[in-house]
Every structure is written in structure tokens, then in C-alpha cells.
Design goal:
Elements: H1 2-29, E1 58-60, E2 63-67, E3 81-88, E4 95-103, E5 112-114, E6 121-126, E7 129-134, E8 145-146, E9 149-152, E10 161-170, E11 180-188, E12 205-210, E13 217-223, E14 230-236, E15 241-247, E16 251-256, E17 263-271, E18 274-282
Parallel strand pairs: 1-11
Antiparallel strand pairs: 2-3, 3-8, 3-9, 4-7, 4-10, 5-9, 6-7, 10-11, 12-13, 13-16, 14-15, 14-17, 17-18
């Protein structure tokens, strides 16, 4: 009798442990805990306390963290808004998530985060820092996994900004075993020659870009009341030009994208030294 009682108690505790692991893993699918970006003083999802364990441990280079339109050669301009994109490719796993944070040299928060895609990304404030991470819906994306959000650069004199990011590529077996964890960083220096960034261009601006992601037709709404002749280009993330045209439209401009390969594309509209740049996803 005692033997069977002990066996039942042992089986109960095993089931309880398994259930706790399952609940923890599935809870993190809707968003990881903050402070797991591998920033100084923080863990990653593969270091103690670890929720994803495998023989790969932590790998640099699995994913990337970049600025849409290219990392500014002279650094960020104080007050400007940049579109940031963590992304991964060719992981072989269907469930992938991320978490990132921006810090100044003293470890304090850098800039201000704006979440434009609330379906796939979310913001969590913790200990004065802003953590951007996936949502449950943001973990499922066939092929290339990418997330985008807007970041407003800090005031003049803030100095360099370091972005820390952790990616998790999970095998979806409801355990902590066999998952891969990768880390990356992005350093943005301050453009000391720049003043406060201007958000409007002389006599024209782009007010809307939709749908994003796009399949066949990208709609661009340009406010151009004086009908200035603008240059419009769509590029691959590696800079290859996919479409190039001129327009003096004041209103809706439609660009056909059906022939483009899936992935991240960059829309650029310019006149002289005034440039509008925005990333979108072709699927």
C-alpha cells in the first residue's frame, strides 16, 4: 500500500512539473518576460534562468536587427523617427519570437518606442526601460519572420545608442528542449552635425502607405498640392531597384508589386535633398 501511495505521489509531481513547464512555455508565446535581451545585467532565454535549452546555446548571427532604408551613415538625428526591424530567415522552425531594448551608455532608456503593428508586436515598460517583443500572433509567419516598430531618437547630446535583441526559434513541442536562442546588437552613433529632424518635406509629404504586408498593389497617398515632380523607387533590402518612376500626383499612387519576390522592400520618394523612406513587406 505504501509503495503504491508513493508511486502515485511521484506520478502526481511529475505531472505537475510537466504542466508547469507547458504553461510557462505557452505563456511566453504571447510575450516573453522583460530583461531577457542579453543586455548588460540581463539574461537571454538560454542563460540562467533559462526557459529554452538545447545544445546550440546562444548563437550570434541567426537573425538581424536593422534600420529600414539602411543604417544612417552619420548616425541618428536627434528627434527623428526610424522604422526598426528585427528579422530572421531560414530557421526551419515555425514558432519564432524576439525581444529588444534600446539603451544609452549609462544603461538608461534611449528614445521613445511607437508600436504601429499591435497585432504582431507589443511594448512592455520595465524598470524605466522599453522592451519591444512579439505577441502570440507574431510568432507564426511562414518563411521569413520579421517585426517592425517605430523609434523616435533621443534628444541632442544623448550619445550612442545600443540595441540588444534576443531571438528564439522554437520547435513547438511544448517543452524547453531543442529550441535555439540567438542574440544580436545594433549600435547607432549620434549625428553630431544634425539639428532636430524635420518630419515634413517642402510642399509635399506621404500620408499613407497600405496595405502592409502587400500582395499585388501597394497604395501610396501623397499630399503634393503644387504637383512637384517626385522620384519614386522601390528597392530590395540589398539596394537593388525593383521599380522606378516619376510622379507629380496629388493623391493616390498605385504601384504593382505582384511580380516582386516575397520579403522586405523599401519605398523611397524624393525630390532634391528631401527623402521619404519606408519599409513594407511583400508576401
Amino acid at each position: 500500500m505504501i509503495f503504491f501511495l508513493k508511486k502515485r505521489i511521484f506520478s502526481f509531481f511529475l505531472a505537475l512539473i510537466a504542466a508547469t513547464v507547458w504553461i510557462s512555455i505557452n505563456a511566453y508565446r504571447s510575450g516573453p518576460p522583460p530583461f531577457t535581451t542579453n543586455a548588460p545585467g540581463e539574461s537571454s532565454c538560454a542563460t540562467s534562468p533559462a526557459c529554452h535549452i538545447d545544445s546550440f546555446s546562444v548563437h550570434p548571427g541567426f537573425g538581424d536587427f536593422t534600420v529600414m532604408g539602411g543604417v544612417p551613415a552619420n548616425g541618428y538625428k536627434p528627434g527623428e523617427t526610424l522604422t526598426l526591424m528585427p528579422y530572421t530567415m531560414g530557421t526551419g522552425d515555425s514558432v519564432i519570437g524576439f525581444e529588444t531594448v534600446a539603451e544609452l551608455a549609462d544603461g538608461s532608456a534611449a528614445g521613445q518606442v511607437l508600436i504601429s503593428d499591435t497585432y504582431r508586436t507589443q511594448l512592455v515598460n520595465h524598470n524605466g526601460l522599453q522592451y519591444v517583443m512579439h505577441t502570440a500572433a507574431g510568432t507564426d509567419h511562414p518563411g521569413m519572420h520579421d517585426w517592425m516598430y517605430e523609434w523616435i531618437a533621443p534628444p541632442k547630446g544623448s550619445g550612442p545608442v545600443m540595441f540588444y535583441v534576443t531571438f528564439v526559434s522554437a520547435n513547438n513541442d511544448n517543452t524547453s528542449e531543442g529550441d535555439k536562442v540567438y542574440t544580436d546588437t545594433l549600435l547607432l552613433q549620434e549625428d553630431l552635425s544634425a539639428g532636430i529632424a524635420q518630419t515634413h518635406h517642402a510642399n509635399w509629404t506621404v500620408s499613407m502607405l497600405y496595405p502592409n504586408p502587400v500582395s499585388d498593389v501597394l497604395n501610396i497617398h501623397i499630399d503634393n498640392p503644387t504637383h512637384q515632380l517626385l522620384s519614386l523607387r522601390i528597392l530590395n533590402i540589398d539596394g537593388k531597384i525593383l521599380l522606378e518612376r516619376k510622379t507629380d500626383a496629388n493623391g493616390l499612387v498605385a504601384c504593382h508589386t505582384a511580380s516582386f519576390e516575397p520579403g522586405i522592400k523599401i519605398l523611397q520618394i524624393s525630390k532634391g535633398n528631401n527623402l521619404f523612406s519606408k519599409a513594407f513587406v511583400k508576401y
